[in-house]
Amino acid sequence: MNNRKFILDKRPQAQITDDLFKLVTEPLPTLKDGEVLVRNQYLSLDPTHRIWMSDMEQYMPPIALGEVVRAGGVGVVTESKSPLLKTGDLVMGLLGWQDYSLHPAAALRPLPKEMDIPPTAFLSVLGLTGMTAYFGLLDITAPKAGETLVVSGAAGAVGSIVGQIGLIKGLRVIGIAGTDAKCAWLTKELGFHGAINYKTQDVKKALAELCPKGVDIYFDNVGGATTEAVWSNLNMYARVSLCGMISGYNDGKPIPGPRNYSLILMKRLKVQGFIVSDYGARWPEAIGEMYQWVKQGRIKYAEDIVEGLENAPRAVNKLFDGSNTGKLILKC
Amino acid sequence: MNNRKFILDKRPQAQITDDLFKLVTEPLPTLKDGEVLVRNQYLSLDPTHRIWMSDMEQYMPPIALGEVVRAGGVGVVTESKSPLLKTGDLVMGLLGWQDYSLHPAAALRPLPKEMDIPPTAFLSVLGLTGMTAYFGLLDITAPKAGETLVVSGAAGAVGSIVGQIGLIKGLRVIGIAGTDAKCAWLTKELGFHGAINYKTQDVKKALAELCPKGVDIYFDNVGGATTEAVWSNLNMYARVSLCGMISGYNDGKPIPGPRNYSLILMKRLKVQGFIVSDYGARWPEAIGEMYQWVKQGRIKYAEDIVEGLENAPRAVNKLFDGSNTGKLILKC
Question: What is the pLDDT along chain B (332 residues), one digit of tens a residue?
Fold first, then answer.
């Protein structure tokens, strides 16, 4: 049996393209004591892949050239030399863009068997993106019922959950997305109070109409012109949770701040970045609460599943051309 | 008796120049019940004058064209039709660029007689700039002993107090200023651990040398290139207290954010703006503590006093060409 794996060969200057990678085939490794072999089933494709592939200053070391492309995922243990895990166990961890992955057993987490939910949920609503939404909204912005929340990248894996948690907390929720279909999904399926298509509408003006009491909280996934338009509508003492800047990741240069940055001063804003891994100790609490919300039908989640490991480089670009709705996942 | 007053006639496009104002002479007003007349003695000249004179989005209404130029100040009551104040009382309030000012007595605050300190202190260390330093450092950044603080505009009225409060709180304190003389004053007179002349040194490199453990807190008075250099040296979870952006006030266009703005995300920064007036209720507490520190010799303050109301427009430019050290005050 062989393993196919994508090796990072070159760093992207702009878009992610096929020629950045080499697809290598090699025999399956032999296990040492304490190790397990995992058949990767589902891999998480995220905007941060573009960051990890670059050598910009970032929150983890970049993927080294010659290394397998880093990716979280869910898989099944096919061989074990550890008492911690046995063949057939479903696990999650940093599996990488490959068919199989070898790990010290302690580096993987078994999926909770008591939760009646498909395994991909642990890559979406109960995974890193769900946790990002949960802590990035609740911990960074401390929302109060009656406040107005605007979320950009609203039809994405993080944004769609942020908005629904906002609704649960009694906020007025406005989403910004890139197609009319996404906007309709946000308002009709998820219950957002309003949605704006940033490609066809004047975001600044539309927000002023949809947010008669101004904007108290901005959950920012995108940066750029959308962010400037939202900032213009922020209230005094508004809080900005800075989760991502996807609009600038492909530019191949540092991502500048908004041109109306001085509003931080004039409006006494708080702008805060965060990384979900900082909240690791509190994930069990958050996963438990999110699971209940899903079971109660208060949080819906969408998954956009692309099949075939060989399609990984092209699939990840759906995040950047905006053609995904919900969590982008690769089925190996 | 006559009153001379500076009326704002035009808004500045770049630097503040004489031709923006009209110096008008008019008879002293007649008092109504509840009013007092004040002979203005000392006026506070601050970077925010440039903001108030413009029509950029700001934290108070701009000065209206045709109105006297707004300015805080200290003066003596020369006539009173209020039981609250009597002739000879020293008061502070928004007096304006003029020889005399008329106020409802309740709009003024008497200087505390129990404090043995010159009246100008209530425009500097015990005034708005001292309060700005106090709350902008202690409340916005919650410093912990052993952390490293960098302050820009460090020889100014706010920056010089910020650094000294930092020293009292056990921080390593590095100041950034624009002349070698200012830098020498910071390290030799005020006890800063280091100082950098941004006009002659590579700030990014100098900071890396002076802050071997990185920068935990940045108190930002200036924005622009200096801010970008400091951000490059910030530690994970660093806090930025955004107090001013004086390097951009004369540009006549919106002041952009730093080009390395994405560090908010990568380093999980918290960037927060504030306005000292929001802390009005806590000023007595802060003034009391700062007064003790001054009396104990733990806080020194410098005042740069320019004489003559007629010199106000030129005097205020000392803030922008960097020729003042400490609090800039106009003696009427």
Answer: 899 999 999 999 999 999 999 999 999 999 999 999 999 999 999 999 999 999 988 888 999 999 999 999 999 999 999 999 999 999 999 999 999 999 999 999 999 989 999 999 999 999 999 999 999 999 999 999 999 999 999 999 999 999 999 999 999 999 999 999 999 999 999 999 999 999 999 999 999 999 999 999 999 999 999 999 999 999 999 999 999 998 888 887 878 889 999 999 999 999 999 999 899 899 999 999 999 999 999 999 999 999 999 999 999 999 999 888 889 999 99
Domain B2-123+302-331 -> CATH class: alpha beta
> Are residues A245 and B262, on separate chains, in Cβ contact within 8 Å?
yes
Cα-Cα-Cα-Cα dihedral of B264, B265, B269, B273, to 10°? 50
Cα B8 to Cα A110: distance, rounded to the nearest angstrom: 70
Residues of B with CB under 8 A from a CB of A: 56-59, 223, 242-245, 248, 254-275, 278
Q: Which of A57, A245, A270 sits opposite B272 (nearest CB)?
A: A270
For residue A246, the chain B residues in CB contact (below 8 A) are none
Torsion sign (Cα): B138, B269, A231, B47 = positive
- The pTM assigned to this predicted structure is 0.89
| Three-state SS at B174 | strand
Q: Are B280 and B139 in contact (CB under 8 A)?
A: no
Q: ∠ CA(A32), CA(A38), CA(A41), 5° rounding?
A: 170
Distances (CA, A) of A182 to A125, A152, A189, B167, B195: 18, 12, 10, 53, 53
Which sequence spans correspond to the domains of chain A?
2-124+302-331, 128-277
Shortest CA distance to B224 belongs to which of A269, A252, A256?
A: A256
Question: What tokens were used for B178?
Answer: 């624009």
Task: For residue B228, give the H/E element and its range.
Answer: helix B224-231
| Nearest-angstrom CA–CA distance, A309 and B78 | 85
Write down the CATH number for the domain with range A2-124+302-331.
3.90.180.10
Residue A27 half-sphere exposure toward CB, CA atoms < 13 A: 3
Look at the block and give the residue holding tokens 């600038």: A248
Residue A166, helix vs strand vs coil: helix
In whole angstroms, give the CA distance from residue A153 to residue A68.
28
Residues of A in contact with B255 (CB under 8 A): 261-262
- Can you tell me the distance from the alpha carbon of B141 to that of B154, in angstroms, rounded to the nearest whole number? 17
CATH for the stretch B128-277? 3.40.50.720
Q: How far apart are CA B251 and CA B263, in angstroms?
A: 25
